[in-house]
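Subject: Interface between my chains keeps coming out wrong

I've been trying for a while to get a sensible model of this assembly. When I model each chain on its own everything looks fine, but I need the whole thing in one frame so I can look at the contacts. Pasting all components below, labels as-is. Any help appreciated, I'm running out of ideas.
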Amino acid sequence: MKLTKMKTTIIAAAVIAGSLAGAATAFAADSQFIGSLVYRTGPYAPGGIPWADGFADYINLLNERDGGINGVRLDLEECDTAYNTDKGVECYERLKNNGATGMPAVMPLSTGITYALLDRVVADKIPLITSGYGRADAADGRIFPYVFVPPATYWGGADIAINYIATQEGGYGKLKGKKIALVYHDSAYGKEPINTLQALADQHGFKLSKFPVPHPGLEQKATWLKIGRQLRPDYVLMWGWGVMNATAIKEAAAVGFPREKFIGVWWSGNDADMIPAGKAAVGYKSLQFNGVGSDFGVHKQIKKELYDKGKGSAKSAGNTGEVAYNRGLQSALILTEALRAAMNQYGNKPVTGEQVAWALDRLSITEERLKEIGADGLFDPIELSCVDHLGKGRAKVTQWDGKQWETISDWIEPNSEMLRAMYEASAAQYAKEKGIMPRPCG
Amino acid sequence: MIYREAGEFKASYREDMAILPIRQDRWFMWALMAVAFLVIPSIASEYWLGTIMLPFLILALAALGLNVLTGYAGQLSLGTGGFMATGAFAAYKLATAFPELHIIVVILLAGLITAGVGILFGIPSLRIKGFYLAVATLASQFFLIWMFNKFGWFTNYSSSGVISAPPMTAFGDFFVTGPHATPVAKYLFALTLVVFFAMMTKNLVRSNIGREWMAVRDMDIAAEIIGIKMLPTKLKAFAYSSFLCGIAGALWAFVHTGSVEPLAFDVNRSFQILFMIIIGGLGSIMGAFLGSAFIVLLPILLTNAPHLFGLNIPVDIISHIEFMVFGALILFFLIVEPHGLARLWQITKEKLRLWPFPY
Amino acid sequence: MRIERDVIYIFIATLFLMVAIPWAAGQLSEDIFFEWPFFFEVAIGGLLAGVMYSLVALGFVLIFKASGVFNFAQGAMVLFSALTLVGLNELGLPMWLAVIVTLIVMLVLAIVIERVVLRPLVNQEHIILFMATIGITYFLDGFGQTLWGSEVKILDLGIPSEPGFYFGGAILINDFDLVAALIAGVLVVSLALFFQYTRIGRALRAVADDHQAALSVGIPLKHIWVIVWAVAGIVALVAGIMWGSKLGVQFSLALIALKALPVLILGGFTSVPGAIIGGLIIGAGEKLAEVFIAPLIGGGIEDWFAYMLALAFLVFRPQGLFGEKIIERV
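Reply #2:
Try treating it as a single job with all components included. I did that and got this:
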């Protein structure tokens, strides 16, 4: 090998070392830093892009319209995780000390990253907000002081789905002897609802059959032959993820299982999952913890302040009604309302993660507040406390009509009494393993 | 000029067989150790220690394990992720079932359990070779992950199937796992283990066993003819390799992330480790470290690079470009030196010996 | 092609086990539902799914046969070709023109790969070439998404996805699967004809047999490589169209390569018919296992079962069912 080649290599190495060393970036001291972990690339990008757009649009709306929160501008920085846990942890560590006060809260948007951050957020005193994913038992704020799970958990989702089925059938009494199948992504995420569904099956006398689908779920023929041609259940629930959803719906169509009796959790209810399934998806139902469509005040303001001025994040204002987009809006709303509450308490300057945790512990997003924002009907009010890090945990059922989601139920409240006991039992088990003393909530 | 062995005389066999026969190499090693143990913990930020150095070290250990199997014994394997998962879950079961066990004991036992599993999955290697073996080891990868996912016993019946490490101390109040462990503590703990096992491996591959492995790698039929028994030799390689991978997995779950789900050790992890040893250099201890550095550091650097130059590029474009540049760099290094970064290092040393003369 | 006797034995044994094990499981366990029409439905569904795996595996085989490169980038090529096709179509090109342009793109890609990657690495070890294709994978994944974005795109072939027809009154067969199988069949036959009867085909086979001998009778190795990568690109496009119309064109398409690997080792890296037979065995085997064995041990076994099945075959034939026998000399 020639020496020149070696020189190039050495120079390259030097450049690499040099640029890594100076990785710190300067930020304005008077603006509030917000770090957002998103996945705009990778296998799950179709569902991640609208979320990231919704989140960014709401933050930008506050900046454009109000000049931030209480006069403090918001400084948003995205970090692409590609839904990869290693990258997500790197993003979190990189962003957590940015800005004047560091990252005020982290929304990892992935079960894997959530688990990887559980220990870290406690040490860093940064609240971890997992809206509709992550650990359901983090609803117990005494054991998870830095984890917040509004507006809904998987366990609640499972209960809501059964509740909806019971309404369809004419009461819980009619569930006896019914067959309900669960098709789930064979991972931490997909397994979350099993315990709840099993408990409900024992209680109401329906038969639960479980059908794990190995990651990534490109092939489900065997699963659906079993379901559609052999078991022939009354209902199918799905805890699917990414490309698995569209495949499942197509296979359900192939065996002729009625889509009206096929109900997915919210992560199986992205627009991006329905589109590839085409006509096969018509009639398919999905739970949503937020409203659907873009006929809300907040969307109009976003259109006026951002898209009409060419500052929108999504491709066009037409994309702002997607379910995942609205979820991004909701996450931004929860975060900014907490920031506002923290600033009201600690002064109108950038706030720290600990202060935001304080605010989240007593977060209150009322119906009136939602009306002011222009999001009434879009989101459910959220009331959190030191003990309760979940709120009501309600969700709606929506149905795909071939182009968009139609809401077909009101907010359905899960059986909080039963679930609360399950959350606490599971959290206590976690506390025992990790040697955590529950904090007093007075 | 500076770097050469002239004037160094070996007076004993011991000196002649030293791992680093040249004085400058020894100095360099000591300096490197000093930097790793003293300088880095005192000057590096939390981000550097916790997010860059720790994964680098742990994955380097896994790469070391795979390099023993693939680089020294010539058995191509894509089961690394599965073996790391075995280590992680074994450590979790041990740590929760016997809370009084010391973390070192837990990790070593987890490594031994993984070695057993490795032997089991190494048996097909007696008949299958090359890429066929690589794909066949994927069977163990998928099977092990499925098993940990499926049976609640492995996760103490947690509803989501996620394991999380209990807080443990190396000595006294020096926490190395759990929320109270500082990045410095975690780093030093991992570093100590990694250095220890790297030295152990270095000695092992110079021993009788290592030479048997290399003989099998270079020509298995010839090796058999000169009296090397295939079965024990290959299985020893599988055992030792899985032992290291198991320890790496346990460290990953306990020291690095704290909580993991089986998917953290999916097939992509196996590929990642394999890339490391190919890029770093097959059959080289140094190569495992260089490869790990390349695969762990480069993407992070590429993601951060536009920021440094003050460019405001959307994150998705950065990610795409990162992919392209990463791919192009892999090709570039392979074309420049197909035998990996370790070979480049070797060549650099050769050149330095002769410097300033070209020949 | 001469089929060795032990292949036939293995084949008969496989067929027997595929029927006997589900039947026995159905007799022994309450949880397993066994009826002949249902068994055939699963088996046929599996065979048709297997054809879809074969489509991907074919691309691997072509390249491995001609250049000894285990082309990790085949999955990325499937994604890239499908993305290009749909992207061009969305830009307003009619479908037929988009297909032609995509084919040209794949040809250019083959030329670039040969120039930039294969030529400098000629005569390197297999594993180095393998790693180089991984570099190509990363590059293509990034490049395709930079050009066409990461959103999901629709590729509608107009084949209905609702239940197809009932064969013999009781066995449900899906239209889409049947069409896919048909297309794969046509592809394989035309590839076989191409290899058997054209000049280039003969040259390709000569190269596959012995690089050195092929060179010495005047076959230009470099051209052959370009051709073989281009043909693999066409196969990738067909696989991309079929899988893309099934799943939507998105990044996940690159993941189907993992489904093709067990097919590949079962059939042998060097055999085109092997890829087809391997696909059929893996497809039927994993579906039958998932339906008739999995309920006993918790389900979701499809993925590792395919690999275990392939592994079981390898124990009897270490070079795959139709792979070339490796003769080693000291």
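Reply #3:
Confirming on my end. The longest strand of chain A covers residues 32-38.
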